[in-house]
Design goal:
With 341 residues, the protein is an alpha/beta fold. The chain contains eleven helices and 14 strands. The strands form four sheets. A seven-stranded parallel β-sheet has the order 3-2-1-4-5-6-11, sandwiched between helices. It has a three-stranded mixed β-sheet with strand order 12-9-14. A two-stranded parallel sheet has the order 7-10. α2 links the parallel β2 and β3. The chain is globular, with a radius of gyration of 19 Å. The two termini are 38 Å apart. The structure holds nicotinamide-adenine-dinucleotide (NAD) and uridine-diphosphate-N-acetylglucosamine. The site of nicotinamide-adenine-dinucleotide has 29 residues, from α1, β2, α5, β5 and β7.
Length: 341
C-alpha cells in the first residue's frame, strides 16, 4: 500500500468524487486539486459525509506550475490520478484551443512537476472515444486508436501518445491509461452524482431531468443505426464500479508494471430504447420520448471487452442496469438542482 498521498486532480468532479470516496474507504490519504470550473467545493463536504474522513482540498488550476510545485512540496505524493479536464464534445468543436490548452497543457505541467519531485505513478482518465468508429465490437485494448473527429477526443489521443512516449524513455514510471466507457449512476447515499451545466448532452442525465419534470421528453437521436433496435448502443458502467477500478489500478501500479492500458466498461451493449425502458421499469416512472434524426458524429455501437482488467487486476463490475437506473434517479430526485442548494 502506498504510504504517501494520492493526488486526485479533478477530484470534485463526477467520476473524481466517487473515486475519492472509494480511496478513503480503502485507507488511502487523498489530496484533491480542482479549479472548480465544472464542480463545487461543497462536494468535499459530501465526500466527508459518506466516507467519514475529509480529503484535503486545494482550489487550483493544474496548469499553474508554481502552485503544483507548492503542493508537491507540502505533501509526500506517491501517485496521481488525473481526472482534471474539459469533456464536452460540442464545446470542444467550438473552442478547440481551450481544450488543447486545458487538457494537454495540464497533463504536461503535471508530468513536469511529477518528474521534479520523483513521483513515479500516474493514472490517466482516457475514454472509449479514442477508438473513434470502432472496427470491431466488442473493443479490445489493442484495437486501433486515433482516428477521431473532435478536439476533445484529439486531446485524449494526444495525451495517450505523450504517456506512451514517457513510458518508453523512463522505465521507472508506472503509467495506467484507463479508457472509460459510459459512466452513469451515483453513490447509493444520493449525496454525490453527476451535475451537468444547463441542458445535458448525455443520455442518462437527460432521462433523469425528464423524470423530474425539468424537460418534457427524451429526444432519441436516430433509429436507423445498425443495432438490435436501430438506436445507438453503448456500454453503460456504474460510476462506483468505475471508481473501484481506480483502486484496483493503484494496487496494480504498486507492482511496478510500467505502462498498462485497460478498458473499463461492463462488456454489455445497451440501446437508447433499452436504457429508457430499464429506467422506467426500475423507478416506475414514465419517460416520454420522441424518435428524431441522428446526432452528428454518433456511431452505431460501442462496447468493451474488459477481460484484460479482470485478468490483470481482478477488477470487474458488480452493479447492473437496475442499480444504475435506481441510483441515477435517487441522486436526481434528492438533488433536483444538482449541487445548487
Ligand atoms: P467532470 O467535469 O465532472 O470532472 C472534471 C473536473 O476537473 C471538474 O471538477 C473540473 O472543475 C476539473 N478541472 C477541469 N480542468 C481543470 C484544470 N485545468 N485544473 C483543475 N481542475 C480542472 O468530469 P468527469 O465526468 O468526472 O470526467 C473526469 C475525467 O474522465 C475527464 O478527464 C473526462 O474527460 C474523462 N472521461 C469522462 C467520461 C464521462 O462520460 N463522464 C467518459 C470518458 C472519460
Ligand atoms: C459521449 C461523448 C464521448 C464520451 C462518451 C463517454 C458526445 C457527443 N460524446 O458519447 O466523447 O467518450 O460520452 O462518456 O458527447 N442520445 C440520445 N438522446 C440524448 C442523448 C444521447 O438519443 O439526448 C443517444 C446517443 O445518440 C447515443 C447514446 O444516447 O447513442 C449515448 O449518448 P451519450 O450519453 O451522449 O454518450 P456517447 O454518445 O457514447
Amino acid at each position: 500500500m502506498l504510504k504517501g498521498y494520492v493526488l486526485v486532480t479533478g477530484g470534485t468532479g463526477y467520476i473524481g468524487s466517487h473515486t475519492v470516496v472509494e480511496l478513503l474507504n480503502n485507507d488511502y490519504k487523498v489530496v484533491i486539486v480542482d479549479n472548480l470550473c465544472n464542480s463545487k467545493a461543497l462536494v468535499v463536504d459530501r465526500i466527508e459525509k459518506i466516507a467519514h474522513k475529509r480529503p484535503d482540498f486545494i482550489e487550483a488550476d493544474v496548469r499553474d506550475k508554481e502552485k503544483m510545485r507548492e503542493i508537491f512540496k507540502n505533501y509526500p505524493i506517491d501517485a496521481v490520478i488525473h481526472f482534471a479536464g474539459l469533456k464536452a464534445v460540442g464545446e470542444s468543436v467550438e473552442k478547440p484551443q481551450l481544450y488543447y490548452d486545458n487538457n494537454i497543457g495540464s497533463t504536461e505541467v503535471l508530468l513536469e512537476v511529477m518528474k521534479e519531485f520523483n513521483c513515479k505513478n500516474i493514472v490517466f482518465s482516457s475514454s472509449a472515444t479514442v477508438y473513434g468508429n470502432p472496427k470491431r465490437i466488442p473493443i479490445f485494448e489493442d484495437d486501433p486508436t486515433g482516428e477521431v473527429t473532435n478536439p476533445y477526443a484529439e486531446t485524449k489521443v494526444k495525451i495517450e501518445i505523450i504517456l506512451k512516449e514517457l513510458a518508453k524513455i523512463d522505465s521507472s514510471m508506472n503509467i495506467a491509461i484507463l479508457r472509460y466507457f459510459n459512466p452513469i449512476g451515483a453513490h447509493k447515499s444520493g449525496l454525490i452524482g453527476e451535475d451537468p451545466n444547463g441542458i445535458p448532452n448525455n443520455l442518462m442525465p437527460y432521462i433523469t431531468q425528464v423524470a423530474i419534470g425539468k424537460l418534457p421528453f427524451v429526444h432519441v437521436f436516430g433509429s436507423d443505426y445498425k443495432t438490435k433496435d436501430g438506436t445507438g448502443v453503448r456500454d453503460y458502467i456504474h460510476v462506483v464500479d468505475l471508481a473501484l477500478g481506480h483502486v484496483a489500478t493503484l494496487k496494480k501500479l504498486e507492482q511496478n508494471p510500467g505502462l498498462v492500458i485497460y478498458n473499463l466498461g461492463t462488456g454489455i451493449g445497451t440501446s437508447v430504447i433499452e436504457l429508457i425502458e430499464a429506467f422506467k421499469m426500475a423507478n416506475k416512472i414514465d419517460i416520454p420520448y420522441r424518435i428524431e434524426g441522428r446526432r452528428p458524429g454518433d456511431i452505431d455501437e460501442c462496447y468493451a471487452n474488459c477481460d484484460k482488467a479482470f485478468r490483470e487486476m481482478g477488477w470487474k463490475t458488480k452493479y447492473n442496469m437496475v442499480d444504475c437506473c435506481k441510483d441515477s434517479w435517487n441522486w436526481q430526485s434528492h438533488n433536483p438542482k444538482g449541487y445548487e442548494e
